[in-house]
Amino acid sequence: MNLAANISWPENPIDKVESFLSACDYTHERRSSNEIVVEINGKWNDMLIFFSFEESMQCLHISCLMNIETKIENKSKIFELLALINDNLWVGHFSYWTSQKMPVFRHSIFCSNHMPLFEKQIAQIFEIAVKECERMYPVFNVVLNKGMEPTQALYPLLMETAGQA
Fold first, then answer.
1. Among residues 100, 52, 96, which one has the least CA distance to residue 77?
2. Is 140 a member of any domain?
3. What CATH number is associated with residue 46?
4. CA–CA separation, 24 vs 2, rounded Å?
5. Whole domain around residue 154: which residue ranges?
6. Which of 32, 37, 50, 132 is the most buried (most CB within 10 A)?
7. Burial level of 3, CB count in 10 A (0-12/13-18/19+)?
8. What is the Cα–Cα distance from 63 to 93, expressed in whole angstroms?
9. Are 135 and 127 in contact (CB under 8 A)?
10. The overall pTM is greater than 0.70
11. 32 has which bridge partners?
12. In angstroms, rounded to a whole number, what is the distance separating the alpha carbons of residues 89 and 61?
């Protein structure tokens, strides 16, 4: 029994995503009625952010693809890094798209008929995805391209700073 199928959604959530992206002046491409993509100029590199709506689950999925191709063959380092990073995330998770050979941040939200709240959720998850990808880009880069050990690459992020410089 699919309980989500009983929930009526007054309009396509991708329309709300498109409104949000337009209001923020992001150039985007509507690939289908249920998918939209936007390219963001990040601090380290460009990122592609995909929004997809799954009608049968009434779920909006966001994927933020980090433009870092791997040069290492040992995938165990990649998966160790993913486990260490994801262990400290409260929202979303990082994954590795083997076909693209790139890390990706992913998160899904169930759609709600409370449109103002839903629009706020879109903005929040967009901000979180970009922030987490920016924060983790240097870590992924040194592991994927320099072969650094994941625990060593994460060490600066785990240190607590005291005082001001």
1. 96
2. yes
3. 3.30.1460.10
4. 35
5. 3-158
6. 132
7. exposed
8. 10
9. no
10. yes
11. 35
12. 17
**Could you give the CA distance from residue 13 to residue 119 in angstroms, rounded to a whole number?**
9
Ranges assigned E (strand) in the chain: 28-32, 35-41, 46-54, 59-66, 93-97, 102-110
In one-letter notation, the amino acid at residue 118 is F
Residue 148 lies in a domain: yes
Say if residues 107 and 125 touch (Cβ distance below 8 Å).
yes
Q: Number of folded domains in the chain?
A: 1
d(CA 3, CA 155): 44
Single-letter code of the amino acid located at 27: T
User: b/e per residue, 28-65, with b = 16+ CB within 10 A?
Assistant: beeeeebebbbebeeeeeebbbbbbbeeebbebbbbbb
The answer to whether position 74 is within a domain reads yes
- 126-155 pLDDT, tens per residue? 999 999 999 999 999 999 988 889 999 988
pLDDT digits (tens, 9 = 90+) for 35-64: 999 999 888 888 999 999 998 888 999 999
Q: Copy the structure tokens of residue 152.
A: 């060593």
The structure tokens listed for 165 are 């410089």
Q: Does residue 24 form part of some domain? A: yes
The set of long-range contacts for 19-27, using a CB threshold of 8 Å and a minimum separation of 24, is: 19/119, 20/119, 20/122, 20/123, 20/126
